[in-house]
Amino acid sequence: AKGYLRLLKVMKRLLDGGYDVRLHLVGEGEDRKVLEEYIQAHNMQDEIILYGFQKEPYDLLRQADAYVCSSYVEGFSTTVTEALILGVPVITTECAGMEELLGKSEYGMIVENTEEGLYHGMVKFLNDKELQQEYRIKAEIRGKEFSIKARINDLEDMFRQDLAKKI
């Protein structure tokens, strides 16, 4: 469901196209052996790092130039939300919850949910430094909406409105 194999295929295309890219995958799953075999077969060990489960992946995420969500299906994505909170630009496939998090690609790039869509979105992002900076700024703006203080303010407003109706 996470689409990691298609992400590796996109990475292979980017590397073959001369792009200087690295992929750091965090998490553990049943596809790890398949991913390791693909990486080995395509000699991408220097460009793709599989970290496995990380209790605190935030330092890795904070250092990223972008967070890529290659999922075929997704609910409300915690990892996309975390990327936004950390001010990391997001490139994601179009699936449930992404428009609610990113608007219509206002706060991050939503691409067609295909290998081609992911590839073309990543190429567009890599080729456009202004777009990278714009999405970094927008991620920081959007990420602030998920802060604890913002949530408390929303709750206080809701209580005030409810109280006003009762008075």
List the helices and strands and how they pair.
Layout: H1 4-16, E1 23-26, H2 32-41, E2 48-52, H3 58-63, E3 67-69, H4 78-85, E4 90-93, H5 98-102, E5 109-111, H6 115-127, H7 129-144, H8 148-166
Helix pairs in contact: 1-6, 4-7
Describe the protein.
- The protein has 167 residues and is mainly α.
- It has 8 helices and 5 strands; from the N terminus they run H-E-H-E-H-E-H-E-H-E-H-H-H.
- It has helices at residues 4-16, 32-41, 58-63, 78-85, 98-102, 115-127, 129-144, 148-166, and strands at 23-26, 48-52, 67-69, 90-93, 109-111.
- The strands form 2 sheets. Strands 3-4-5 form a 3-stranded parallel beta sheet, with helices on both faces. Strands 1-2 form a two-stranded parallel ribbon.
- Helix 2 (32-41) links the parallel strand 1 and strand 2.
- Helix 1 packs across helix 6 (115-127) and helix 4 (78-85) crosses helix 7.
- The mean pLDDT is 91.
Mean of the pLDDT scores? Answer: 91
The first-to-last residue Cα distance is 50 Å
What's the number of extended β-strand segments? 5
Taken in chain order, the helices and strands follow as HEHEHEHEHEHHH
Query: Which structural class do the helices and strands define?
Result: mainly alpha
**Order of strands across the main sheet:** 3-4-5
Please mark out the parts with pLDDT under 50 across 5 or more consecutive residues, or reply none. Answer: none
> Helix content range of the residues, please?
40-55%
| Number of helical elements | 8
Q: What percent strand?
A: 5-15%
Give the CA-based shape: elongated
Largest sheet: 3 strands, parallel
If you compute it from the alpha carbons, what radius of gyration comes out, rounded to the nearest whole angstrom? 18 Å
